[in-house]
C-alpha cells in the first residue's frame, strides 16, 4: 500500500507540470492582457504611463519560456506571486477564499449522500415498485435540468412573488450558523440536485448487481433478514462504483463552484477566479488552478486507496 501511494504521489509531478504549462500558456493566449488593464486604469486616473515600463515591471518583456520558468521556480519555493490588482499575495487570497469554497462543497456533498444512498438502497430493495419507478423518473429530471437555469429561477421568482432574496453578506459558520445557512443552503441544495439523481441510480444498479451474486443468495437461503443481507453482505461490496462517483463529485464540486458562487454572490475561490480572469490577473488565476489541481489529484488518490477498504480483493499496484 505504501509503495503504491508513493508511486502515485510521484506521478503527480509530471501531471502538475503539464497543468502549469497549459495554464500559463492559455492565460497569455487570451485576447487582451494585464498590461492593457493597467494602462487603462492609469489613464482613467489621468496618468500617462509608458507601456514598456509596465511590461518590464510585470516581467512580461522577457521571452515566453523565460517567463514560465521564472514563475515555475518561484512556485517550487512556495512563492505564488502577488495579485496584480488586489494588493495581496496569491496565497493570502487563496487562504481566505478556499475555506468558503470547501464549506459549500462539503455541505453539498453531505446533502448528496444523505439522500442518494438511502434512496438507492430502498429502490434496489423494492425493485420495479411504484416508489422505484417514481425515484428513477425524478432522478432523470434532476440530471437533465441545468443547475444554472434552476439557480436563475430561484433568484428571480421568489424575489418577484414574495420579495425574498438570499443574503449576500458572508458570515462565517463559526460566528452565526443560522446566517451562514441563509447563504449556503439554497446553492448547496441546487448543487446537489443533479448529483443526487445520478448517484442514486449508481447505488441502485450496483446493489442490484451484488444482490444477484451467489453468496447473497446463500445469505437469503439461511433465513437472514432483509436488513442483514442488505447491510451486512451486499452494501459494502457494492460501494466501489459509488466511491468512484463520490470522489468525482468532490473534485467537481471544489473545481466547479464557479457557477453557484457567482449566482449567489458567495465570496469563494470560484468567484475569485472569475474576477481574476476578467482582470487578466495572471498570478492569481495560475495559483488558483494549481491549488485546485493538487486537491483534485489528492482526492483521486484517496478514492483509489478507499477501494481496498471497500473490497479486500482489490490489488493496488
Q: Helix tally?
A: 14
Query: DSSP strand (E) fraction?
Result: under 5%
Categorize the overall geometry.
globular
The run of helices and strands is HHHHHHHHHHHHHH
Question: Please, what is the average pLDDT?
Answer: 80
The level of helicity is over 70%
Number of DSSP-assigned strands: 0
Instruction: Give start-end ranges of low-pLDDT stretches.
Output: none
C-alpha termini separation: 8 Å
Structural class: mainly alpha
Rg over C-alpha atoms, rounded to the nearest angstrom: 24 Å
Summarize the main sheet. none
Give structural notes:
With 317 residues, the protein is mainly α. Helices cover 76% and strands 0% of the residues. It contains 14 helices and no strands. It has helices spanning 2-29, 34-44, 51-58, 64-76, 90-125, 130-144, 147-162, 177-211, 214-221, 226-234, 239-255, 258-263, 269-278, 282-310. The radius of gyration is 24 Å and the shape is globular.
Keywords:
single chain; mainly alpha
Secondary-structure topology with pairs:
Blueprint (H helix, E strand, L loop, with lengths): L1 H28 L4 H11 L6 H8 L5 H13 L13 H36 L4 H15 L2 H16 L14 H35 L2 H8 L4 H9 L4 H17 L2 H6 L5 H10 L3 H29 L7
Helix pairs in contact: 1-14, 5-6, 5-8, 5-11, 5-14, 6-8, 8-11, 9-10, 11-14, 13-14
Short description:
This protein is mainly α and 317 residues long.
Amino acid at each position: 500500500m505504501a509503495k503504491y501511494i508513493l508511486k502515485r504521489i510521484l506521478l503527480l509531478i509530471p501531471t502538475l507540470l503539464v497543468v502549469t504549462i497549459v495554464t500559463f500558456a492559455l492565460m497569455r493566449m487570451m485576447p487582451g492582457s494585464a498590461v492593457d488593464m493597467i494602462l487603462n486604469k492609469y489613464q482613467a486616473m489621468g496618468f500617462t504611463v509608458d507601456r514598456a515600463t509596465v511590461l518590464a515591471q510585470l516581467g512580461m518583456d522577457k521571452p515566453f519560456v523565460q517567463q514560465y520558468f521564472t514563475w515555475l521556480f518561484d512556485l517550487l519555493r512556495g512563492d505564488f506571486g502577488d495579485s496584480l490588482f488586489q494588493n495581496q499575495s496569491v496565497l493570502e487570497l487563496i487562504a481566505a477564499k478556499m475555506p468558503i469554497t470547501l464549506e459549500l462543497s462539503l455541505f453539498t456533498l453531505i446533502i448528496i449522500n444523505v439522500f442518494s444512498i438511502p434512496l438507492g438502497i430502498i429502490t434496489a430493495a423494492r425493485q420495479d415498485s411504484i416508489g422505484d419507478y417514481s425515484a428513477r423518473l425524478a432522478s432523470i429530471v434532476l440530471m437533465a435540468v441545468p443547475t444554472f437555469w434552476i439557480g436563475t429561477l430561484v433568484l428571480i421568482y421568489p424575489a418577484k412573488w414574495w420579495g425574498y432574496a438570499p443574503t449576500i453578506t458572508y458570515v462565517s459558520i463559526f460566528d452565526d450558523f443560522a446566517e451562514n445557512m441563509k447563504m449556503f443552503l439554497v446553492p448547496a441544495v441546487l448543487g446537489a440536485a443533479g448529483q443526487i439523481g445520478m448517484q442514486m441510480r449508481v447505488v441502485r444498479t450496483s446493489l442490484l448487481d451484488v444482490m444477484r451474486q451467489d453468496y447473497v443468495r446463500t445469505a437469503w437461503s439461511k433465513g437472514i433478514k432483509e436488513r442483514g443481507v442488505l447491510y451486512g453482505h451486499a452494501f459494502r461490496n457494492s460501494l466501489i462504483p459509488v466511491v468512484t462517483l463520490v470522489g468525482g463529485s468532490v473534485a467537481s464540486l471544489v473545481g466547479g463552484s464557479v457557477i453557484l458562487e457567482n449566482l449567489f454572490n458567495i465570496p469563494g475561490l470560484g468567484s475569485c477566479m472569475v474576477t481574476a480572469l476578467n482582470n487578466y490577473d495572471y498570478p492569481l488565476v495560475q495559483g488558483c488552478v494549481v491549488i485546485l489541481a493538487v486537491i483534485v489529484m489528492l482526492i483521486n488518490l484517496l478514492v483509489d486507496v478507499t477501494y481496498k477498504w471497500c473490497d479486500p480483493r482489490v490489488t493496488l499496484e
